[in-house]
Amino acid sequence: MRYTDCIETRRQGRIGHVGNAENDRRPGRPRRSETDSRILEATRALVREHGPEAVNIAAVSARSGAARTTIYRRYVDRQALLGAAFETVTRRGGPPPGDSLEDKLAWLLARAEEVLRDGIGAGGVAALLSGEDPDFVAAVRRALAVGLQPVTEQVAHDAANGVLSGDVDPDTLVNLVLGVYLGEALRHGAPDLPWRARTAKQLAALLAPE
Asked: Cα separation of 197 and 171, whole Å?
């Protein structure tokens, strides 16, 4: 092989290596899950407390204690970071298939609280409604679409098998549960556990097959 061919082969090898951050990680130094958790929780906390406009790599680094380079190695841009932060909140699967309708609705109400209060928070809900941060809106809606898919599938299954009224639309039911939680929070503050049980019972009476 000619000398110039050797140089070109080595140059192409370096280019291919630089393009893969996962391969750059040295053996024996796996990604630390606790670092991931700190980064994502810092992102959610900034959104909850100050709105998504407060989220940038410098702010997340300061809040989480992770170096900026560590964050950049994990997330290619701000939207990817936001998406990952909220996917961890929305991906909880679906309600246990063997539960009663009332228990399934209580499960859905608990997940609504987890997403809207503990995940997105007041600052995030306001930003979703205003649509002023397209990156944030796209990231959260994508996370919700993925996370809620097992829920809508369970609703469709229950409607087809007589657990729910056959007229129930899965997307409408999910929106109803989210709206019920938001309505209670707006009018009376954060709902308590008795409210969840009481509301699940009332919804079950409305949605059960005749």
From this structure: 22
